[in-house]
Amino acid sequence: MRHPALPRQTRGGGAADAGVTLIEVLVVLVLVGVMAGTVALSVGNGGRGDVAGQQADLLVARLNRAADEVILTGSAMRFDWTAQSYGFSVYQGDSWEPHSVALLAEPHILPDRLRLGETAGSATLSADMRLDDGKVLALELLWSGSRAEQITFDGINAERVGQGS
């Protein structure tokens, strides 16, 4: 006869109500995932209104990626910009061609009210990691005519150096 205070035994010798089932664990994981997703969507990245900052970060990342490609391939790279867009090209044979890396191949169009300086320009990075004029490239992102972000590029590293008005 079994004592009522003792747990019922299972085939494996353990108590029948010990631990949790796989289904219970999966249900908890699904609930945690849904809650984490809800929190992430409601909080966001905190910078939805900072278009200039996001575009500055994107330009810095692309300049750094282009410099990495120059190191890896040993081919010169050119960075061309207008007030509304920028793009990258590489020297192949006897002409400048769109960059072979998909991320850098297509020109990037800036959002409305954001401009990359007042005039168009270009900078060439040689295979020895030197900019064509030997100086640090300083670019300004302008938001509705006012300086919003400044980016510098020395041929090896690009970075955001400040926020304006």
TrEMBL record:
UniProt keyword terms in alphabetical order: Membrane, Transmembrane, Transmembrane helix
Name this polypeptide is given: Type II secretion system protein H
Listed transmembrane segments: 20-41
Source domain of life: Bacteria
SUPFAM superfamilies the record matches: Pili subunits
